[in-house]
Amino acid sequence: MPVPVPELGSYNFVQETKEDLPWADLITLDFSLYGTPEGNQQLAKTLIKAVREDGFFYVKNFNISQERVNRQFAIGKQLYETPLEEKLNLDPVSGLRDRVEVYNIPKFNGDFKHEHPEAAQQHLPEIEEFARSLHTEVLDPLHTILAIALGLPEDYLKNIHKYEVKSEDHLRYMKYGKFSPEENQKLNGLWGRGHTDLGTFTLLFRQPVAALQIRNHTTGEWSWVKPQDGTLTVNTCDALSFLTAGYVKSTVHRVAVPPKDQQHVDRLGLLYFSRPNNDVELKTIKESPVLREQGFVENEFEKSGNPVPTMETWTFAKQKWQRTKNVARGDKKFENAQILPGWNEKVYA
């Protein structure tokens, strides 16, 4: 049931770019098909094609209104109007880096404290309802469909992504502050270098400032992700790659300098990062006949004979690497660092 919501200013999206960019041709999953055996099978075929070929795809008709999404953008806007002094006193998982501002809100399952700036605190019931709906309306269906595609019981992946069990999932409000044309030239066309996300799926709500680029698994070429009305953009991440021994690849992506007709504005993002429960071992799912038949039976940890980390161990190891301070661009020791026995991280151009 919807919760009472305080008054909130509207959020106005900027105009989409008029530039003709090399857009990625991504698959769209239509969740209006979800819920019947025939519809789920059709979606499973579409999803496995999407995650195998691109690792990025769109989802539409996911039962969360655009009005509710717009309110979350408005909350994010209010949050980033918080005075700098208050921002700098935020929890260490949030804060400022370069001109990127990040604010994460963890699960509402009793495992985490919820002490936030007033801009977020006054809307916390609404934020909780929104975050929980992402599980019931988006992530649970995705986990069900992917389980079907892998020949697993339908609840297999849902059972290792339970909302009430501790995991490092979080809703994120993220702001990329604009640069001057001269500053953008010095950045060599990039606001954020290529990387992979560490969880299962990342959900990105449509916002019209073009900047997200994805790297093709086969050719290594980069293409732009086009904002699509009424959709979520979803990408596959590290944990899912480990669980499927690379059958589903973690997708490399980056944030480019926006087109010239959008460089005068800040870029506000609304994202949700889904991760397996903390106690889940990131070993290959042996029960999948699809993985066995395709020869995907060992991930990098298993092949090397090193201990397979739990999701908690993996999360904190990668985050420690990500948060390394004072790293010079081109530092090879950082860009190919071993973060756990059997795994070296990588920074992409």
TrEMBL record:
Segments forming domain Non-haem dioxygenase N-terminal: 29-90
Entry superkingdom: Eukaryota
Matching Gene3D superfamilies: B-lactam Antibiotic, Isopenicillin N Synthase, Chain
Isopenicillin N synthase-like Fe(2+) 2OG dioxygenase domain residues: 181-274
Protein name as annotated: Clavaminate synthase-like protein
Organism: Trametes cubensis
Organismal lineage: Eukaryota, Fungi, Dikarya, Basidiomycota, Agaricomycotina
